[in-house]
Amino acid sequence: MNTSKPRIIMISSSPRSYGSSNQLLVVAAKGVIDGGGIPEFINLYEKNIKPCAGCVSDGNEYCRFPCIISDDDFNNVASKLLEADGLIISTPVYWYAPSGVLKNFIDRLTSMEHMIFHKGRSLLEGKVAGFIATGLDSGVMMAISYLAITLNSMGVHIVPWSMAYSHEEDITKDAQAVRDAYNVGLIVAKTAKALKNAEYIGYDPTVDVKELAGLVKDFVQTLERERDKRLQWLRKASSCLSCE
């Protein structure tokens, strides 16, 4: 049994180290520690993360990890994710969405997700994620929803109560946000620890699509028969109504 402590990468994507999203990230780190994990902070604004070049659009063979864009810090940061068991992302909200530097980083994670076509699995599969978003205006849930859906599409586990958000500049004035952020860290760490001992369950890219398509065709034929029965009933019911 693997009893080692789970490593959780704490990703900051704010240009203000003292800002509200980083304040909540510190609280989440305490939750990680109390959950038996080891937090490691990375500030994307201290890194050089270039925009994605869209290599996958030119062919699956071009999109892989390490990313072919090798003259920036992405591969180094992503390698830390590869070695970790989970991640917690914090971001300020810029126009209802995550910060631009975080969006660049998320786009570049495609290189890890796309390894499913090279090694049979996304390199992010099995990891656990939580999210923090702050902003004085609306948009925090839109930003979190985007992150959760995208990371889940890359094979990452999105655990219950995995989000915290606030509209306060000073988060000590937002007791619920502080409580939520702590629990994000706690639950991500505990879930990551539990999954260390779990059987791997991942996406199967080798499934026989032709066989499944045959099942769909049989199903559709059955539906067509049911549709004919339903149309007969509708015509009869409609005819009876018109006679009244």
Automatic annotation (TrEMBL):
Database matches in Gene3D superfamilies: 3.40.50.360
Stored Pfam families: FMN_red (PF03358)
Domain of life of the source: Archaea
GO terms of molecular function: oxidoreductase activity
Domain NADPH-dependent FMN reductase-like stretches: 6-162
Keywords from the UniProt entry: Flavoprotein, FMN
Assigned protein family: Belongs to the SsuE family. Isf subfamily.
Protein name (Swiss-Prot/TrEMBL): Flavodoxin family protein
